[in-house]
């Protein structure tokens, strides 16, 4: 059974940092793409960042480029999202998701499995 568990969310002041983790189990980590999405109240879910586990190809939404960094630790089957210089508009529930092919995508319909989400709140 594929499982994704996100941790690391919390409350932080604007300008601060958080590091989210997505621990994956139930599938061979290599050969997949994993993404972080977020959804704020009243908004659609948006793709924040994604990574191809095979070749570390990455994607970042314009809104987070230069502030967020996605990385993976294949030995731990874990993907991370380092979030720096956080802004109140980054407040959302953050989800990780996996798709069964190596090419990255920031479209949620391209992803097959999802975690339960972790809340990130940035105060001004």
Give a written overview of the molecule:
With 124 residues, the chain is mostly beta strands. The protein has no helices and eleven strands. The N and C termini lie far apart (40 Å). The strands form two sheets. Strands 2, 4, 5, 6, 9, 10 and 11 form a seven-stranded mixed β-sheet that branches. A four-stranded antiparallel β-sheet has the order 1-3-8-7, with no helix packed on it. The protein has strands spanning 3-7, 10-13, 18-25, 33-39, 46-52, 58-60, 68-73, 78-83, 92-99, 113-114, 118-123. It is globular. The model has no long low-confidence stretch (mean pLDDT 95). A hairpin with a 6-residue loop joins strand 4 (33-39) and strand 5.
What keyword list fits this structure?
124 residues; 4-stranded antiparallel sheet; 11 strands; mainly beta; 0% helix; 7-stranded mixed sheet
Q: Number of DSSP strands?
A: 11
Fraction of residues in helix = under 10%
Runs in which pLDDT lies below 50 for 5 or more consecutive residues are none
Strand content: over 45%
Largest sheet: 7 strands, mixed
Query: Based on CA inertia axes, which overall geometry fits?
Result: globular
Q: Which secondary structure elements does this structure contain, and how are they paired or packed?
A:
Layout: E1 3-7, E2 10-13, E3 18-25, E4 33-39, E5 46-52, E6 58-60, E7 68-73, E8 78-83, E9 92-99, E10 113-114, E11 118-123
Parallel strand pairs: 2-11
Antiparallel strand pairs: 1-3, 3-8, 4-5, 4-9, 5-6, 7-8, 9-10, 9-11
């Amino acid at each position: 059974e594929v499982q994704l568990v996100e941790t690391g969310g919390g409350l932080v002041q604007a300008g601060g940092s958080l590091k989210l983790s997505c621990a994956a189990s139930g599938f061979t980590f290599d050969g997949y793409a994993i993404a972080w999405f977020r959804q704020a109240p009243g908004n659609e879910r948006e793709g924040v960042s994604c990574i191809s586990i095979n070749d570390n190809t990455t994607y970042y939404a314009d809104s987070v480029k230069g502030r967020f960094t996605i990385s993976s630790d294949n030995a731990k089957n874990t993907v991370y999202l380092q979030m720096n210089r956080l802004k109140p508009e980054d407040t959302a529930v953050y989800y990780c998701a996996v798709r069964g092919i190596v090419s990255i995508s920031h479209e949620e319909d391209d992803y097959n499995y999802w975690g339960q989400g972790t809340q990130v709140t940035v105060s001004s």
